[in-house]
Design goal:
single chain; about 140 residues; mainly beta; Metal Binding Protein, Guanine Nucleotide Exchange Factor, Chain A; 7-stranded mixed beta sheet; 3-stranded antiparallel beta sheet; 1 helix; 10 strands; disordered N terminus
């Protein structure tokens, strides 16, 4: 049985080419801007903005067969569109009930807000954080 949306209109999103589409039917929690070298490389930018979603609230509408996985560690798999390369989400074996979504792939306006910058101890030397969110050298 499909879960009811937690808001009138669930968040929708997908990859750049449109092959992968998804809905988020619940809240996004623990939104952070991660400045670690791995997130910088995956995102191709100064940081990645990620948030947690309950696994049951993340619904692939199409393109599951177009997702390619990369084991970035023993515990974590990162999923990308195999056509356009857009990073979509990651999953951890140690946290099977949640997925971590790249917020840049969400098309809808997002009500939740980032809570902090993390791994600023390894941020790009050319990046300058200019907001007033808490900054943490690690997680």
């Amino acid at each position: 049985m499909e879960r009811a949306a937690s808001r009138e209109h669930p968040y929708t999103g997908g990859c750049l080419c449109g092959a992968v589409r998804f809905e988020i039917r619940g809240p996004i929690t623990d939104i952070v801007m991660c400045h670690c070298s791995q997130c910088r490389k995956v995102q191709g930018s100064a940081f990645a903005t990620n948030g947690n979603v309950a696994a049951d609230d993340f619904v692939l509408l199409r393109g599951e067969d177009n997702l390619s996985a990369y084991a970035s560690s023993e515990d974590q798999q990162k999923y990308f569109c195999r056509t356009c390369g857009s990073p979509i989400l990651s999953r951890r074996k140690s946290r099977p009930n949640e997925v971590r979504v790249r917020l840049g792939t969400i098309d809808s306006d997002i009500a939740e807000r980032p809570e902090a910058h993390i791994f600023v101890g390894s941020k790009a030397n050319w990046d300058r954080i200019s907001d007033d969110l808490p900054c943490h050298d690690e997680r």
